Amino acid sequence: MSDLDPSLYDLVSACKAASRQAASLSTEAKNRALRAMAEALLGRRTEILAANRLDLDAAAERGLSDAMTDRLTLTPERIDKMADALREVAGFDDPVGQIADVRRRPSGIEVGRMRVPLGVIAMIYEARPNVTSDAAGLCFKAGNAVVLRGGSEAIHSNRAVASALHEALAHEGIDPAVVTLVPTTDREAIKDLIRMNEHLDLVIPRGGEGLIRFVDEHSRVPVIKHYKGVCHLFVDETADLGVALDLLLDGKLSRPGVCNALETLLVHASVAEAFLPRAFAEMTANGGQLRGDDRTRQILGDTVPQATEADYEAEFLAPILAVRVVDDLDQALDHVATYGSLHTEVIATESVTNARRWVREADASVVLVNASSRFSDGGELGLGAEIGISTTKLHAFGPMGLEALTTQKFVVHGAGETRHAVPPRADA
User: Fold this and answer.
1) 3-state secondary structure of 286
2) In this structure, are residues 72 and 128 in contact, taking their beta carbons and an 8 Å threshold?
3) Domain stops at, among 310, 340, 370
4) What is the mean pLDDT of residues 127-156?
């Protein structure tokens, strides 16, 4: 244990012990527990809202931004959605125990790969108290135990939500430690937590780039990283410009503060004069702003500010869009390779050849052809829900659902086969 916080160490040790029970539960038992957890949230609604009010009052005193306060706020409707999300997870297919790739080898053995839980997952997150129940439900359905460390701004809300979940788990005969909430808001607790590599199997931080880099820098446990979403739309020379404009407006303006929102627009030079004035007019009419390179400003005029290197690197999280005119697909792909964040890349094109090249060469966890970047979401991609998004390539890449919260082990069946000849036995 060395210099680790002993109380935190005891909590995580208990979670590790409880993970064995979580891994052994049947699908039916997990689903019953998830439904009970949903009912417990509804039954404790008054207490949860009262706890959330304490957090909101503290947020007002601290001067938290409107965006952060919105993420922090719980309402009766949002608690209903949290309960619905748990019921939805109960309805998902259970990946645990699934066996695939079964083959008989020349030796006679039969080899397959079975999905198994990862073990103990640490979730480190900011502001959103709904993550407490969402992450608990997803990790639990995949047979894992989870350690939850929310931000200080949501501590009362998170405690109230976790208490409701614990009540339901205990009622179902399941060790409540399978969902362990770190009760302290001390930032040093994060350092201690992510050094417990003998107890934790994976760390998933969700929040700002600063939090994720902090976790990655100090962790002794594998980390699923997603620093930011610098997502591009490339309008190809063959694009249907009406489709491209719809993709731009939805991708940038439907919800500018999320990681799958567009941040940069790349436009082929041959369609720039036709497309950019339309894009500028629609963006500005809807409260958006453009920042452009020299070629963009030649078309749109000096009212568009000059885009800088920092703009092309930025995740604005606001209705601001960096724009660049490019000569061809190669230049667009070069720009993505230089400034992209491995998150989401979109092409508007009517060329099958260019679409195939984009899909093959754009380095991102999600690539789209003639579809909005806002589809880069676990629910929209058919995962049902997501625990987060990985822009690392091991062990998951892109939105992570239940399957990404498991791994595979080899399962071998034989009928006494040995790899080498066995010496004659004395009892033969």
Assistant:
1) coil
2) yes
3) 340
4) 96
